[in-house]
Amino acid sequence: MESLALFVGILLLVLILSGPLAIGLTFVKTTKQSSKILLRVLICLFSAIGIGLGVMLLLQGIAIGAKLMAIFAIAASAFALKREFKSK
């Protein structure tokens, strides 16, 4: 049972940190083309993890606190994607 609690704790930690981490990466300015591509890949990866875990938790029958965390993760990840890929 403690391994299940550890798994849930890690899952929620990743859920909470993926969106703000993706938003933080959007503030990094690079000049090289290869670093821009790597940065966009990382932003997409963290956003996909946040949106995926958020939707997974929203569809489960869980408490309202976890659903609020899932909504926060989805909103933060969507904002990071919008900020990175908006037309300039």
TrEMBL record:
<keyword id="KW-1133">Transmembrane helix</keyword>
<feature type="transmembrane region" description="Helical">
    <location>
        <begin position="64"/>
        <end position="81"/>
    </location>
</feature>
<protein>
    <submittedName>
        <fullName>Unannotated protein</fullName>
    </submittedName>
</protein>
<keyword id="KW-0472">Membrane</keyword>
<feature type="transmembrane region" description="Helical">
    <location>
        <begin position="37"/>
        <end position="58"/>
    </location>
</feature>
<feature type="transmembrane region" description="Helical">
    <location>
        <begin position="6"/>
        <end position="28"/>
    </location>
</feature>
<keyword id="KW-0812">Transmembrane</keyword>
